[in-house]
Design brief:
The protein is mainly β. The protein has two domains: 22-58 and 234-362, Jelly Rolls, CATH 2.60.120; 68-158 and 170-229, Jelly Rolls (Sandwich). Helix content is 3%, strand content 35%. The chain has two helices and 22 strands. A seven-stranded antiparallel sheet has the order 15-10-7-12-5-4-22. A hairpin with a 7-residue loop joins strand 1 and strand 2 (35-40). The longest helix has 6 residues, at 320-325. The protein is elongated. The two termini are 40 Å apart.
Length: 363
């Protein structure tokens, strides 16, 4: 452990950046590890050409073709720890089978639509902006409402938990009292009921002569939970632009899910108001744009996904800093997934890629 300072720099990161320079955060372990700040004469994203796979990518997953089974997600990015995809269930419908994921936990983020998810623990109604966290091995079934349905899906090999809040205190970000759990409603129906179990990415169908959701009660600290992104209360600092990791909402083995919601801009005249340049060398970064005005990204609409692999810089688009000066608050809702293992785009991802995204920093 050591700390050195050489040449032209500012003693406080993201504040009072020397005129004519561009601050670049070179950090380890997803903003949690050792870090240095480098002060460039040119913006680190000022490239003229990129050849190879280590480049910023964007995907319009709203345009992704419907999966053969609308009740299962199509995945766009994946590694050994996590898969990130999208699901478009039929509106005003009930899944014709019950489903159990034996490969991992699922987090469903409801981008559009509403409905009821039936579970072993009981039913939960959900709507736009809700996170649904489904523990591994839980039996579920979706029944959708009459509007269009579009869900972001994160599948985790390991258990999904809440982040440690440390100095912020246990009521920061969101009080756990905001987490809604279901109350059981035991079914007594007889007939033929199919349960599909996904294990090692293959489906097994189990048929029962009774309704699989026949639980009359439950107790414990493992359950399906729901919380809306609007219940997330962001941490801010009027004198310092905080790292995105401060918006952590859920954590898994090898990844973290963060929620970006409206917050006041920094009011210190010397403080950076937009995300700082960084190469975040230990994490791939994925952001799903849900709603609002995405001030740091040009031409980015709701339902799009950006993918910034570690190793290459990313940061705000040109003129984002000037735009931010005239505003008092951000006005965006987005979900970020940072992963510690490299993500690989699937064949489905290439079908909805915005291939010129990497050039948007040249404008």
């Amino acid at each position: 452990m050591f700390h050195e300072s050489k040449g032209k720099y500012t003693p406080q990161a993201h504040v009072g950046i020397p005129e004519g320079t561009y601050e670049d955060e070179h950090g380890r372990n997803g903003f949690y590890g050792r870090v240095s700040h480098l002060y460039h004469k040119n913006p680190p994203t000022g490239w003229s050409k990129i050849d190879g796979k280590c480049r910023p990518q964007a995907f319009n997953i709203i345009e992704l073709a419907q999966n053969k089974d609308p009740w299962q997600p199509g995945f766009l990015l994946e590694n050994r720890d996590v898969k990130i995809g999208f699901m478009k269930p039929k509106e005003n419908s009930t899944c014709p089978y019950f489903f159990r994921n034996a490969d991992g936990d699922n987090v469903y983020f409801i981008h559009k639509g509403e409905g009821t998810i039936e579970t072993d623990f009981g039913p939960l109604k959900y709507s736009r902006g809700d996170y649904l966290v489904i523990p591994k091995g839980t039996t579920i079934r979706f029944s959708t409402g009459s509007s269009e349905q579009k869900y972001l899906v994160v599948e985790s090999r390991a258990e999904v938990n809440l982040p440690e809040k440390g100095l912020l205190g246990k009521h920061a970000l969101f009080d756990i009292a905001n987490l809604e759990t279901p109350k059981p409603e035991a079914h007594e129906d007889k007939g033929t009921f199919e349960l599909k179990i996904k294990r090692q990415n293959e489906m097994t169908t189990v048929t029962y002569p009774f309704h699989p959701l026949d639980v009359v009660g439950w107790k414990g600290d493992l359950s399906v939970v729901k919380i809306n992104i609007k219940d997330f209360r962001p941490v801010g600092s009027h004198r310092y632009h905080l790292a995105p990791s401060v918006h952590s909402t859920f954590v898994g083995s090898g990844f973290v899910v963060c929620s970006f919601v409206p917050r006041p801009f920094e009011t210190d005249s010397e403080a950076t108001r937009v995300p700082f340049y960084h190469r975040n060398i230990d994490c791939d970064e994925v952001i799903f744009y849900h709603d609002g005005d995405f001030f740091s990204r040009k031409n980015m609409g709701a339902g799009m996904v950006t993918f910034h692999p570690f190793g290459i810089h990313h940061g705000p688009h040109p003129k984002a800093a000037e735009t931010a000066k005239s505003k008092t608050m951000t006005n965006e809702y987005a979900v970020m997934v940072d992963t510690y293992q490299p993500l690989s785009p699937t064949s489905d991802a290439t079908k909805c890629e915005w291939v010129d995204y990497w050039q948007t920093w040249k404008e």
